[in-house]
Design a protein that fits this description.
The chain has about 200 residues and is α/β, with parallel strands linked by helices. The chain has helices at about 15-30, 75-105, 130-135, 150-160; strands at about 1-5, 40-50, 50-60, 65-70, 150, 165-170, 175-180, 190-195. The strands form two sheets. The protein has a four-stranded mixed β-sheet. α1 (about 15-30) packs parallel to α2 (about 75-105).
Length: about 200
């Protein structure tokens, strides 16, 4: 398993802080990970508005789990973030157990990626490009993700664990492209992408 430590801003990352975070992580893995195979973990330490911030990003076999906490003390932030991580591992374990009892067995899915899953479209027409660019904020971050075939319940579970605001996936039942997003009131919205007729 790979562990990566990153200090942001003016924070000085000492060996004692690293060791404390690694010890807490090992304790979580030994007692609260429920056998989830962890591949990589990223620990990010920083200072934001006079608060000590600690973020954990854990990559497991098919999930990404993120937990963060900010307090006035870095050690307290580390403790709080690992408490959140424990709760998310437990929630994932309970969801998988519930899924197992509902379907009879947990299916192992094999995901294939082909050219049809990578969608490149022109968003704006040339006639309205100047107007839209003036009204829209600039894109400051772009990322690529592998298209996954999931059930809606699995997609919601992955979103809850990763704290992402939205997710695009291929629905396992209808084989249509779906956009799942978190609404401001805490519920979820789903949009199905269809070809124009």
């Amino acid at each position: 398993m790979d562990l990566h430590h990153t200090a942001r801003g003016t924070l000085v990352l000492t060996d004692a802080i690293r060791q404390y975070a690694e010890d807490k992580f090992q304790k979580v893995l030994n007692h609260h990970s429920f056998g989830i195979p962890i591949q990589r973990a990223f620990f990010t330490y920083g200072i934001e508005r006079y608060m000590q911030k600690f973020t954990i990003l854990v990559y497991a076999s098919q999930i990404k789990v993120r937990a963060e906490a900010s307090t006035k003390d870095l050690y307290a932030s580390i403790d709080a973030a690992f408490s959140i991580l424990e709760a998310k591992f437990k929630k994932y374990h309970d969801l998988m157990k519930e899924h197992h009892t509902r379907s009879g067995s947990i299916k192992n899915h094999v995901y294939f990626e082909d050219e049809t899953e990578i969608i490149n479209r022109e968003i704006e027409s040339e006639n309205h490009k100047d107007i839209k660019e003036a009204m829209l904020p600039p894109v400051t971050r772009a990322s690529k993700q592998i298209m996954k075939t999931l059930l809606l319940e699995e997609a919601i579970m992955k979103m809850e664990l990763s704290d992402e605001p939205c997710m695009i996936f291929k629905d396992e039942r209808s084989h249509n492209l779906m956009a799942l997003y978190k609404r401001h009131n805490g519920t979820y919205g789903v949009s199905e992408v269809v070809e124009p007729s």
